[in-house]
Amino acid sequence: MAGRLSQLLDPARISLQVKNVKRTSALHEVAQLLANHPDVLNFEGFYGELLARDRLDSTSLGHGFAVPHARTDHVQKIVLAVGRSEAGIPFDTGENVRLMFMLGTPKARPGDYLQVLSTLCRVLKDGSTREAFLTAPTPEDFMRIVADAETKLLGPA
Q1: Structural domain boundaries enclosing 87
Q2: Torsion, CA 53, CA 58, CA 62, CA 67, rounded to 10
Q3: φ, ψ of residue 90 in degrees (nearest 5)
Q4: Buried-exposed string 9-46: b where 16+ CB fall within 10 A, e elsewhere
Q5: Domain count of the chain?
Q6: Which CATH number does the domain housing residue 76 bear?
Q7: Residues 77-102: pLDDT tens digits?
Q8: Which Gene3D superfamilies does the record match to this protein (predicted)?
Q9: What is the pTM of this model?
Q10: What is the CA radius of gyration of the chain?
């Protein structure tokens, strides 16, 4: 199922210590986690479209979370990376974003994007889950929190 975040995530694509505090630099740092992803056909093209989309409208969801994303022909399947910042990254909304879920989805599959975004928004509604994301000590722990939250929402995988 395309909506399962836990099936899209990989510990190697989760950074729990994003160093950059400027938005574009932080976006690039998190995007780099996808540079060698087998489903990213053209990283520079994907990153360019991600930045262009980010300039159009804020991708902040509130509560210190954002979902920078691009619907692009530069990925062949949906890809996901996560970046967490202790300091927070200023977004246009005036909010400091502490956690980014970065998505790349094929233009031909808008339903997959909407399904993943819907799952993510439902997971992030829960305050204890949001807090757990911000305090997970390792990428593996972060993935367990994602899987547990999804199981509560969607049932077993």
Answers
A1: 5-154
A2: 10
A3: -65, 125
A4: beeebbbbebebeebeebbebbbebbeebeebeebeeb
A5: 1
A6: 3.40.930.10
A7: 999 999 999 999 988 767 799 999 99
A8: Mannitol-specific EII, Chain A
A9: 0.93
A10: 14
